[in-house]
Predict the 3D structure of the following.
Amino acid sequence: MGQEPYVEEYTIQAGDFTSIGEASTKFRATLKMLGIPSEVVRRAAVVAYEAEMNAMIHGGGGTLRMTVASDHLEIMAADQGPGIPDVALAMQEGYSTASDEIRELGFGAGMGLPNIERNSDRMNIETEVGTGTVLTARIDFPGQ
Amino acid sequence: MKLRDVAQSIRAEVLYGEELLDTIDIECAYGADLMSDVLAFARPGSLLLTGLTNIQIVRTAQMLDLPAVVFVRGKKPQEAAVKLASQIKMPLLLCQMSMFETCGILFAKGILPCHIPDRGV
């Protein structure tokens, strides 16, 4: 890997439950190809998958981007959805505004954001009601 | 325990991946109908047991490096889930027993639970 960070970006379509995870799967394949340690790949995959899920379920679609630098990677999910009125509340395990339809599929249990935080070294949420949400999560590579 | 022995123990039908059963070793398992919990707690290499059938079950297992999925309570995965599993070579087993009974049999055979930090195990 050179000095320039590697960037990969995908559009998340609204309302397409079947395709959720396709972007995260591609990120995962890229990280494996780059020889990133498997524990980091697993954490990044969970972060990306949860973020992709959130952007689709709550944000009405958006963008998922992964940046891989020499000592860390960053995953960013951006949507133009309703925003999060109370981030602290959204961070509580079990708190969820997901629909019954999503819950019946095994998601929307209020574990997504805590899962992202647990699997990343640094997480940031910028959100504005009525405008959208940008989530960034950074994972440092071992030994950094 | 080889996945083939797991399948025999719980009298499971192999929906996909018959030829892979002897290549996969199972030490621990995670049983849940909540994929959010699976993403939070399942250990890489664990066997996933669930009663849900949609494509995201296979996707969740793939993200976590879980090698195979057992569908309990006689549930059958949806076509899209089977298609994805065959693409990524992830065996799918069908078991008629309840989650409780399936997990109980495997636990008695020595399959371990996943690490749960809050319990210190």
